[in-house]
Amino acid sequence: MTFFVASYPNSTSRAEQLPQQNIAGLYHFTELRNLKFIFENDALLSYAQIQANSIPVATGGDSVSLSLAQRKNLTDYISLSFTPYTPMSSNRKLDRHLCFLVFRHDVADINGVLFCNGNANANATIRAPGLTGAANVNLSAIKNGVAPGSGVWHDAARSEILVPQRLDLSYLEKVIFVNDLSRQQARDLCLNPDRFNFEIDENTFFIDPTVDRDIAFNTLISVDFDNCYFDGTNYLVDRTETNDIILKIKVRAAKKMKLLASTSCKTFRDEWSGMYPGEVEAIRTYPVDELSRDEYFFNVFLDGSFWRRRVVMVN
User: How many CA atoms lie within 13 A of 24 on its CB side?
Assistant: First the structure.
């Protein structure tokens, strides 16, 4: 389907057509921990640029996809999708703590951008710039809400926009998180979080939005302390009034999971099975008389998600 040229023969801009095709934005998924480096560089960088600058980013592709990209000279491009429900992101939703960066439509008009009518690495995919490339992309399946399980949708959802080398965050419209705890982690990683629009939308994290009712991966819902006072930065514990620090962790479980809660004095490792999908709660007690130092960092790990807070002991 040549929706750009056939429907808009007089158009000179790819970007202005996307909203009319019901494309909300251009999506890039990444692990939440990568936001630190994205914010520091004020941009998304291509794999080649990441390697050249020795940036310790966890990339989304595996060794096979990387090898294919290298053969086709695509490692110096950044991939964006027309939907958050792509086959690749669906696989990553099962085992990674993700967030979605949503970029404005005018990214499509950046010089050197390539349109791909399928997976960029596939031999059969046509990669071309401008309206010529855009004309090869079939977005009608996404526009019309065809179920992700269908072959037509599956093929269309693989389509990509490739941006050369660097995509500045000036094009960033918003970042989507699965819940408020994930959003708060992102704010902690960003020196100026109010600069960006951080939103929560569980639907973005479904595998198939037409049938799913639960998040596809394990995620932290909340982590909090009893008997501690939060001053906006640290948790404060009065040794004279508190016997135990009680750590409460609430998790949404989608599959078998491993939870790690630790301090420098004690570590708890929990593994659950047969309790999903649904919410589970873990409560861990740390006796104050075992905490001899003035401050401690409490860490909670669940799959790819990570929570860290400082507890200060006061008399």
Answer: 14
Does the pLDDT of residue 62 top 90, yes or no? no
d(CA 187, CA 268): 27
SS3 of 272, please?
A: strand
Contact 234, 111 (CB under 8 A): no
Residue 36 burial (C-beta neighbours within 10 Å; 0-12, 13-18, 19+): middle
pLDDT bracket for residue 275 (50, 70, 90): low
Q: Residue 189 CB: number of other CB atoms within 10 A?
A: 17
- What value does the mean pLDDT take over residues 218-222? 81
What is the per-residue pLDDT across 161-174, written as a single tens digit (0 to 9) for each?
999 999 999 999 99
| % of the chain exceeding 70 in pLDDT | 77
Distance CA(254)–CA(206), nearest Å, equals 11
The whole-chain average pLDDT of the chain stands at 80
How would you write 4-19 as a 3-class SS string? HHHHCCCCCCCHHHCH
Pick from 200, 202, 222: which is nearest to 307 by CA? Answer: 222
Q: Are 241 and 205 in contact (CB under 8 A)?
A: no
Higher model confidence: residue 208 or residue 312? 312
Gap between the Cα atoms of 298 and 257, Å rounded: 20
**Is pTM, for the whole model, over 0.70?**
yes
Quote the pLDDT of residue 137: 82
**Residue 310, beta-bridge partner list:** 297
Query: What is the rounded distance in angstroms from the CA atom of residue 175 to the CA atom of residue 35?
Result: 10
CA–chain centroid gap for 201, Å, is: 12
User: Which helix (H) or strand (E) segment is 112 a member of?
Assistant: none
């006061």: which residue's tokens?
Answer: 314
Residue 123 CA neighbour count, 13 Å, CB half:
0
Q: In what order do the strands lie in the sheet with 278-287?
A: 219-226, 244-253, 278-287
